[in-house]
Amino acid sequence: MTTNEKLKNFLQTKLTECKEVIKKRKRNNKINKIIYSISIVVSIVGSSIAVILSSVSVPPVAIACISSLATLTSALSVKFNLRGKKDKLERNIQELNKIKDRLDYVISCVAS
Q1: How many domains does the chain have?
Q2: In this model, does residue 5 exceed pLDDT 90?
Q3: Can you state the angle between helices 60-79 and 3-55, rounded to 10 degrees?
Q4: Inter-axis angle of helices 82-111 and 60-79, to 10 degrees?
Q5: How far apart are CA 8 and CA 14, in angstroms?
Q6: What is the pTM of this model?
Q7: How far apart are CA 22 and CA 75, in angstroms?
């Protein structure tokens, strides 16, 4: 096996590893986006329902519970910094895609 073939094999394994990491990060990013979106929607809907119910003769306990739910979902979003994690994962995926493209280019050059 020549040096070029060894180099090509090494680079191809690194490319495969890079693709797997990108795939895992994209999956994590998708999950993070879903959780972030759900927390925002629940917070807005809960607040809206609490406002609507406050104008109707509903027991104050029900309004307090709905408001608490909306507050908790907002707090969870802030506590776990879901948007920051989502943005960080997207930047990381972009960087890994650049590395993958460079590895593809180097492999094509070595093959020549």
Answers
A1: 1
A2: no
A3: 160
A4: 30
A5: 10
A6: 0.68
A7: 30
The token pair that represents 25 in the structure block? 């990060």
CB neighbour class for 73 (10 Å; exposed up to 12, middle 13-18, buried from 19)? buried
DSSP 2: -
Q: Which residue has the tokens 């989502």?
A: 86
How far does CA 49 lie from the centroid of its chain? 29
pLDDT, mean of residues 89-111? 86
Q: Tell me the pLDDT tens digit for each residue of 47-98.
A: 788 778 777 777 877 777 877 877 777 777 777 777 788 888 889 889 988 9
In which domain, by residue range, is 107 found? 3-111
